[in-house]
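2 proteins. here.
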Amino acid sequence: MNKHLNELIDLAKNDQEIDSYTPRLEAGAKKVAKIQKKVTSAQLELDTLSRQIEENNIKVTVFEEQITMLHEQLKSNTVKSKNITTEKEMKALSLEEDIAKEKMTFANEEIARLQTINETKSGLMQEASDKVTALASDAKAIEDVVFTERADIEKSKGELFVRREKLSRDLEQKVLAFYEKIRIWAGNTAVVPVKKQACYGCYMKLNDKTYSEVIRADEICNCPHCGRIMYIEPITAEA
């Protein structure tokens, strides 16, 4: 086999191995992003419940202040009633008291309603808090696993990059430039095997002349259909 072709095959396989780690890194990043999204969603739910409880507490305070004012108004009306001299004044004061009592009743009912809602939301808030804690723990565990895997991958990739550097130095620069040019568009299929007399880059059948040239491997052969560099795997060449 042509020396340069053999070197190209080694370089291509090395590049394929380097790039094979990319899906694993992306999968790890997706796992982290997915669990973080769940944590964020659970935290948002917790924050929303907390805000709603606080808003209801503010409303309760307003109603309590209103009840205090109405209570003072009723006390004041009791004093005024002692000085009433006409029936018209008595009816007006009585109407005022009825309105005040209705407002007090409404305020008390609203306070009771809001407090009931807050009791329910407090229970939901505890559940949401437990959920955030559990998801945060899961996220930490996943991040640790992904971090360890990423560190191992980066170490392996580093070793492969060192090997690539050596392979690139040993390869004739014109041949290397030719390979890199094909890799721009073909990626990890820049150098492909020929099986059943077909290029395994574009899967088009080769004519007999080209196929025989690939078998001899005296020179670097390109697929006439797609331009990829082709070679015959050892077991096929022996056969």
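next one coming up
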Amino acid sequence: MANAYHEQMAAALETQVYFADPYSSWQRGLNENTNGLLRQYWPKKTDFKKIPKNEVSAVIVELNNRPRKKLGYKTPANLMAEYMAAIAA
């Protein structure tokens, strides 16, 4: 049943869709890395409904302004600004 749903989604989006296998963290590198970054602020099983939105927003801003080795020590925010400037030109 899941495969039919995946095929419908891929057709609707007109693209290939990839779903990682359950319990296969190595197939979800970006997701697992992001989870690790979030664990620096909140422990596993944190109920985010109890975290004030402004606290979550502050962490998002902090993470987006944190230089990343993978990005040549640029920040995600800088790269997004560069990208938006390039498409606006």
